[in-house]
Design brief:
About 45% of the residues are buried. The longest helix has 14 residues. A hairpin with a 3-residue loop joins strand 14 and strand 15. About 35% of the residues lie in helices and about 15% in strands. It is an alpha/beta fold and about 600 residues long. The protein has 23 helices and 19 strands. The protein has four domains: about 180 residues, Dimethylsulfoxide Reductase, domain 2; about 90 residues, Rossmann fold; about 140 residues, no CATH class; about 130 residues, Beta Barrel (Barwin-like endoglucanases). Strands 13-15-14-19-12-16 form a six-stranded mixed β-sheet.
Length: about 600
């Protein structure tokens, strides 16, 4: 919104959004002669259509391209040296890896003219501010962790953090990921637990083994791993091997069909709910949405279901619930004091705090907001951690009143509220280091960076010469919560997009059929000839391949489930992220 230069890496916000007022913001940047829009994408995306600079690397070579851009900054003395000296650590470890890097060779591997790459790096360096945004196009691709690191070297190397138009760290009610250092590893594969999460491609490996600590049961909530995670065939095999599979969902998903127990819940229109993807700055926004409809008879929210499960397990501290309920009637100060006292007396209370609060005060909140009880705790934590930001939003109160004042504002704001207003300096205060400096050196990635100098060891070969992007965002794609295919006004089957050159060479007419094969499976697909695709690159949309009852009541499959084609073995060596955007494939015309 505020940057002079905007760089989108493997992201097409014209369709996928990810920023507020995406199309309006993109047009504003593109129309301003003093600003610059840079898109890095092998496909000529809708965002690339209006870009000032479109760098289109060969699929899977983003690491070479970004490394060449970093090397340009280093070798042409374009780094923000004074800023780096003041705000970062470890840059002296980083620089040797780029001083002699062969920029021309790396650009050749990426398939982009060296002058274009250098000019993009120079434009970033001379800008007053640059904002870079990466997305699944590179996050689910070869060298994904390294690419994320290189992109940050470009941004931080040019002084773009903690100022208007650059990267920032927003206030949050509930962080969706923790940046804390952890040595935890999974029991079977000894894989890193990152931000509390096990890499999804490794779940089957934690089950399909005779290891004594293998996963034996799973609780799957609002997720559909059989369809949405890599290698559906192996995922089905893994879930079948579990002793018990419980699914909580609003739909009878492909995973629910395999479950021992399916616990249906009300939809998002029938309960209070919210999202914690609150990343705006300097003003950040939160909306506790009201229910619009009553749930069908017999259904209730996850909060009620969780509470009943905890009670059935004998883990609900009923005395604490009663004490808190009584304290709420006495007033907020009494409630806060009682909660803190109980949490201090028994640390186990915090493990079940959401259901304790739901049982204690849920039905005492304004009508329809029972599920918002847990927001009381989030408001207290936010008030303790971010008092200046919250007061900046006009929320008033002393140290013990601020959290309740924020909670009351959220409850009363039917259309949502700004809960935090920051100055740009606040981003520095949120860095997870006492010295408030950015650590630029990540030695674990230096070895992988060095391997780029050995050339591109392509994942494709003569048997599988194409690169399949498994999961492209299009006008009529959605997450699989929308299962009825009738909402799609066009591209109902989710056609495979193919370049005109490849279509002509293989004899594939637009609207025709072809066979698409990967090392995992082979399927038939509809063909869409698209001049947005480069030769050798094909794509399928996400959100297809779901079963839904047809007019006769029988389940009908529409489109291709891309994860029937992907392999769980194709993943980043460090973070385990899947390579959905780089699947080696073969495409053949169907005779007759």
């Amino acid at each position: 919104e505020h940057c002079e230069v905007a760089v989108f890496i493997g992201k097409n916000p014209w369709l996928s959004h990810g920023i507020a007022r995406a199309r309006v913001t993109l047009r504003e940047i593109a129309r301003d002669p003093d600003r610059c829009l840079i898109v890095i994408d092998p496909r000529r995306s809708e965002t690339a259509d209006i870009a000032d600079i479109h760098l289109a690397p060969r699929p899977g070579t983003d690491a070479w391209l970004l490394a060449a851009m970093v090397a340009t900054l280093v070798q042409e003395d374009l780094l923000a040296d004074d800023w780096l000296a003041e705000h970062t650590l470890g840059m002296e470890e980083v620089l040797p890896h780029f001083r002699e890097l062969p920029i021309a060779d790396f650009c050749a591997i990426a398939g982009i003219d060296e002058n274009e790459v250098r000019e993009a790096a120079r434009r970033i360096a001379r800008a007053e501010s640059t904002a870079l945004f990466e997305d699944l196009g590179v996050q689910m691709n070869r060298h994904s962790t390294l690419v994320s690191y290189l992109h940050r070297l470009i941004g931080f190397g040019t002084g773009n953090f903690g100022k208007k138009g650059a990267a920032y760290s927003p206030a949050s009610l509930q962080p969706i990921a923790s940046g804390s250092v952890s040595s935890r590893k999974s029991p079977v594969t000894q894989s890193r637990i990152i931000s509390g999460l096990l890499p999804c491609n490794l779940i089957p490996d934690e089950i399909l083994t005779d290891h004594p600590k293998r996963f034996r049961a799973m609780l799957v909530e609002s997720a559909n791993p059989v369809h949405s995670l890599a290698d559906s065939a192996r995922m089905r095999e893994a879930l079948e091997a579990l002793d018990c599979l419980v699914v909580i969902d609003v739909a009878m998903s492909e995973t629910a069909e395999m479950a021992d127990y399916v616990l249906p819940v009300s939809s998002q229109y029938e309960k209070a709910e919210a999202t914690f993807f609150n990343f705006e700055f300097p003003e950040n926004y939160f909306h506790l949405r009201r229910p619009l409809l009553d749930p069908p008879v017999g259904l209730f929210s996850e909060a009620e279901l969780h509470s009943r499960l905890v009670e059935a397990l004998g883990a609900m501290p009923q005395e604490a619930v009663a004490a808190l309920r009584a304290a709420w009637q006495e007033g907020r100060p009494a409630f806060l004091a009682r909660f803190q006292e109980l949490a201090t007396q028994d640390r186990r209370l915090m493990a079940v705090a959401p259901v304790v609060l739901y049982r204690a005060i849920g039905d005492l909140l304004p009508d329809g907001l029972a599920e918002g009880a847990v927001v009381w705790a989030l408001a207290q934590l936010a008030a303790a951690k971010e008092p200046n930001a919250i007061r900046g939003a006009g929320v008033e109160g002393g140290p013990y009143e601020l959290g309740d004042a924020l909670f009351d504002r959220i409850l009363g704001a039917e259309s949502g509220t700004i809960f935090a207003v920051d100055d740009w300096q606040a981003s520095w205060e949120r860095l997870g280091r006492p010295d408030r400096k950015i650590q630029m050196a990540v030695p674990e990635l230096f070895e992988e960076l060095a391997t780029l100098g050995q050339g591109d060891h392509a994942a494709t070969d003569d048997d599988f010469p194409f690169v399949l992007c498994a999961g492209e965002r299009r006008n009529y794609t959605a997450n699989t919560i929308i299962r009825n295919p009738d909402w799609r006004r066009k591209d109902r089957s989710g056609a495979l997009r193919v370049s005109p050159a490849d279509a002509e060479r293989l004899g594939l007419p637009d609207g025709g059929r072809a066979r698409l094969s990967t090392r995992r499976a082979s399927i038939e697909v509809d063909i869409e000839v698209s001049d947005r695709m480069r030769p050798g690159h094909v794509s399928l949309p996400n959100g297809h391949g779901l079963r839904y009852p047809a007019a006769d009541g029988e389940a009908e499959l529409t489109g291709v489930s891309t994860n029937e084609l992907t392999s769980s073995e194709d993943r980043d060596w460090l973070a385990g992220t899947p390579w959905h955007k780089h699947v080696p494939a073969r495409l053949e015309a169907i005779a007759g």
